[in-house]
Specification:
5-stranded antiparallel beta sheet, 20 strands, TIM Barrel, binds magnesium ion, Beta-Lactamase, Alpha-Beta Plaits, alpha/beta, binds ligand C2E, 3 domains
Length: 573
């Protein structure tokens, strides 16, 4: 303390000197040792606020060297704007004998301010009179910095988070607008993280993400910003690129580095990465738009099975069209806009009606003429196929129950998508739906295509066996167009094979198609499967199929798909 700090008019008397000596004597070696090891600043003043002792932390905070003159509670130590307030609080502590907190700024050796919180407490003499004060000083600058850091960084990787990414990209775009430079945004996705977490647990997943983050930072170099955007998604912002090719080079380097093995618990783990790129020329575009464009490009790369995709306007249009279609599908499902059309399946020898294939129709599709070949895959992508499939199955079972009252041996053949077959409770639901409608399971045929075998053969075969236990019949649709081999066909518990329309169309036209049809018919006979030829349009095709020994057919030659009332009329006839 200065001899006469501002606002403190205290005479320097012998008595005061005595008190100082007395207080000073309390600061012995053990006290110093202890105080110098505390993580906060500690000081002692006399009644006129002269600093008698400051520990190491406070001295360092104040930029005070051991050889300097003793610390003074003046404008060189406390920020000039805060000094009066601090002195006033100190006086109150001494006058009233109560502890107080005061937040202020200290000025360090370089003249920059540090925010501190001081706790001041009175020091009594033997008679209980307050003769000085002790104080602790906690550096708030670090806490503030830590809080700021935490608000702008990801906990796991310590990389900038979305908030900092946005601020950084915004600034980069502003700079690029002046310098006419190119800014590239790379959306980086890690493959297979989910698989690794399933196999090795979340802690291993976290370690992998940290390793990948470090590797990404090293790959893109110090001039680019790397931020963690989501669980296994990073966004890189690269400025001052010479052009699009440089961004692609950077993306290739990222893909290469993510392709190298990561080591987790001594084992090599392979992830791989994909990158979507969006570019801003001369600062054009906004943060949200660029990040979203790069994300769209990433999704495209994933869909196309390629490691890198550069955003273009067509991608955006596609994404928007898909979103619109998804919304319409959802609404259409709520409003009951999906119905079934029924296409007769006939016995080839006599042309007698045996049953119907149920085909989904959208009463009010957003695009005229949109058929199931478009909206069924869209419903699969939107996660709606479960609900839509169930709705259609229920309709088909209701019809079946009606028709079975007229003709007990009629059947309805319902198409199932691969996603539906993967649902664990499919067999129970099919059984329950049949029971609700009061239909005999023997009249329900379920059509699957060979694509059900693409994911998990064992599970598909298991699901099919469960369906067989319900009492329904199974058909292999579009046979000959898929990837499966005869080996698989032998393993599938199917009853009917449907020869794909493309082969039927080639009958009598292409020798190859004719011999494929002959081979399929021969094979089905050997395995004991019934046969349905699809897409029969001419009497010539029907004749050839008959000659080759095919039992059943459907196609425009016999009837186009019709509504339920027309189908019922055909049954009555
Ligand atoms: P699919 O199961 O092979 O159905 C046969 C398709 O061929 C139907 O097309 C039918 O209208 C058409 N078709 C029938 N006879 C002829 C013919 O003589 N000539 C020609 N050119 N075409 C004929 P659609 O109704 O457009 O259905 C297309 C595909 O959509 C179906 O092929 C099936 O894979 C799928 N699909 C239809 N309804 C559903 C459904 O309810 N659920 C599922 N998961 N998929 C369905
Ligand atoms: Mg079908
Ligand atoms: Mg088919």
């Amino acid at each position: 303390m200065s001899e006469r700090p501002p606002g403190c008019a205290v005479d320097v008397t012998d008595a005061a000197e005595r008190v100082r000596a007395q207080l000073g004597s309390r600061i012995n070696a053990p006290f110093r040792l202890l105080a110098d090891h505390l993580p906060i600043g500690v000081f002692l003043t006399d009644g006129s606020q002269r600093v008698l002792y400051a520990n190491r932390v406070l001295s360092e905070l104040a930029g005070h060297e051991p050889d300097d003159a003793p610390l003074e509670l003046d404008a060189a130590l406390v920020h000039p704007d805060d000094l009066d307030r601090v002195v006033a609080v100190a006086r109150r502590v001494i006058e009233r004998g109560e502890s107080r907190l005061v937040d202020c700024r200290l000025v360090d050796g370089e003249g920059s301010a540090r925010a501190v919180r001081c706790r001041l407490a009175p020091v009594p003499d033997e008679a209980g009179r307050v003769v000085g004060l002790v104080g602790t000083v906690a550096d708030h600058t670090d806490v503030e910095r830590q809080l700021e850091h935490r608000a702008t960084h990801d906990d796991l990787t310590n990389l900038p988070n979305r908030a900092l990414l946005a601020a950084h990209l915004d600034a980069a775009l502003a700079r690029a607008a002046l310098t006419r430079a190119t800014v590239a945004v790379l959306f980086v996705g890690l493959n297979r993280i989910g698989v690794v977490i399933d196999a090795l647990g979340h802690a291993a997943g976290d370690r992998l993400v940290r390793q990948a983050a470090r590797r990404l930072v090293a790959t893109v170099g110090p001039d680019a910003l790397v931020s963690r955007f989501a669980e296994d998604r990073f966004v890189v912002v690269a400025e001052d690129l010479p052009g699009a090719e440089a961004a692609a080079d950077l993306a290739r380097a990222v893909v290469a580095s993510m392709g190298d093995a990561f080591v987790i618990e001594g084992d090599d783990v392979f992830l791989g990465g994909i990158v979507g790129i969006a570019m801003a020329e001369s600062g054009d575009g906004t943060v949200d738009q660029l990040v979203s464009d790069a994300g769209v490009a990433l999704a495209h790369a994933a869909d196309d099975g390629v490691p890198i995709a550069v955003f273009d306007a067509e991608m955006r249009a596609e994404v928007e069209a898909r979103h619109t279609l998804e919304r319409s599908l959802r609404r259409g499902l709520e409003r009951g806009e999906f119905l079934l059309a029924y296409q007769p399946i006939v016995e080839l020898a006599e042309g007698q009606l045996l049953g119907f294939e149920a085909l989904a129709r959208w009463v009010d599709p957003p695009a005229a003429g949109m058929g199931p070949a478009q909206f069924i895959p869209a419903a699969e992508d939107a996660g709606l196929i479960g609900a839509l499939g169930q709705e259609l199955l229920a309709q088909a079972c209701e019809q079946l129950a009606h028709w079975q009252r007229v003709r007990s041996d009629v059947f309805v053949s319902v198409n199932l998508s691969a996603r539906q077959l993967a649902e664990p409770d499919l067999a129970q639901r099919v059984a329950a739906t049949l029971a609700d409608a009061g239909a005999d399971p023997a009249g329900l045929h379920l059509e699957i295509t060979e694509t059900v075998l693409l994911d998990d053969v064992e599970r598909a075969v298991e699901s099919l066996h469960q369906l067989k236990l319900v009492g329904v019949r199974l058909c292999l649709d579009d046979f000959g167009t898929g990837y499966s081999s005869l080996t698989y066909l032998c393993r599938l518990p199917v009853d009917v094979v449907k020869i794909d329309r493309s082969f039927v169309a080639g009958l009598g036209v292409s020798d190859r198609d004719s011999s494929v049809v002959a081979a399929i018919i021969g094979m089905a006979g050997t395995l004991g499967h019934d046969l349905v030829a699809e897409g029969v349009e001419t009497t010539a095709q029907a004749g050839r199929l008959r000659a080759l020994g095919c039992d059943m057919a459907q196609g425009y030659l016999f009837s186009r798909p019709v509504d339920a009332a027309a189908a019922a009329a055909m049954l009555d006839a």
